[in-house]
């Protein structure tokens, strides 16, 4: 049984709804620039995952399925909705579809995978956060979010993203890391029947294009698109490109 999450809802009387699920160490504001334009044609809902933003912080560990159940506990969708999930948000989106927790129309899985990283990589990050808080990993996290060239010319955005990361509760961050660390969705992907678009930034080092292509090959109704010059978080790096991709896929 999940918990009630903090969320923001914009756009009201449209035919289609998009639920946006943010990456690790962030909150719903990751999608603000995308939603500002998309709310004219879609109902847009963005959530804060457990332990992130203004949602409750539970004792870790968390699981991907528990984090998906939070969404089904928070919302009661009468008709199928579209979901865009980035990174851990993509894993949660897949879990929502696999476990039929909410009615899903189409999936947009951004910079994610059926299994992300390995146990040791996540343990290293968990240990750093436990020993010194988010301060210990924030610079590394931003290096994984954006390509160097983009970071160098986007000082203000980097400062905002740093603040966003540092707002995350260490317990929430650790719990979400443990959820990714222990999840492998590979054997369940055949249960996803929805039309699915997988997008991956060509410069994404966390979930590289190779992983996105592999994921697309394992979901029966999936297509794949690589975003040139983009890193791990397209909605922040290039909101206009993200809007264009969503618009083309959902209309």
The portion of residues forming beta strands comes to 15-25%
Corresponding CATH architecture: 3-Layer(aba) Sandwich
Distance between the termini: 34 Å
Corresponding CATH superfamily: Alpha/Beta hydrolase fold, catalytic domain
The number of helices is: 11
Instruction: Provide the gyration radius in Å.
Output: 16 Å
Helix content: 40-55%
Counted up, domains total 1
CATH class: Alpha Beta
| Number of distinct beta strands | 7
> Reading side by side through the largest sheet, how are the strands ordered?
1-3-2-4-5-6-7
How would a crystallographer describe the biggest sheet?
7 strands, mixed
- The overall pLDDT average reads 97
Q: Which secondary-structure class do the elements indicate?
A: alpha/beta
Q: Can you tell me the overall shape? A: globular
Order of helices and strands: EEHEHEHEHHHHHEHEHH
Unreliable sequence segments: none
């Amino acid at each position: 049984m999940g918990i009630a999450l903090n969320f923001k809802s914009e756009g009201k009387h449209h035919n289609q709804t998009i639920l946006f699920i943010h990456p690790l160490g962030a909150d719903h504001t990751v999608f603000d620039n995308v939603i500002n334009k998309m709310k004219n044609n879609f109902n847009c809902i963005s959530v804060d995952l457990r332990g992130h933003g203004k949602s409750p912080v539970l004792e870790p560990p968390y699981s991907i399925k528990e984090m998906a159940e939070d969404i089904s506990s928070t919302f009661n969708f009468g008709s199928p909705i579209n979901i865009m999930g980035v990174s851990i948000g993509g894993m949660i989106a897949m879990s929502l579809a696999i476990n039929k927790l909410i009615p899903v129309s189409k999936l947009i899985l951004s910079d994610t995978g059926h299994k992300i990283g390995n146990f040791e990589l996540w343990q290293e990050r968990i240990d750093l956060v436990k020993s010194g808080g988010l301060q210990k990993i924030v610079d590394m996290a931003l290096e994984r979010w954006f390509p160097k060239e983009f970071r160098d010319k986007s000082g203000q955005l980097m400062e905002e993203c740093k603040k966003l990361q540092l707002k995350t509760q260490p317990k929430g961050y650790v719990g979400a890391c443990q959820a990714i660390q222990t999840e492998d969705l590979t054997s369940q992907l055949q249960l996803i029947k929805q039309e699915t678009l997988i997008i991956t930034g060509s410069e994404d080092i966390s979930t590289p294009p190779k992983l996105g292509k592999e994921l697309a090959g394992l979901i029966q109704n999936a297509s794949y698109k690589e975003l040139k010059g983009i890193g791990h978080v397209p909605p922040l790096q290039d909101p206009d490109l993200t809007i264009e991709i969503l618009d083309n896929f959902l209309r």
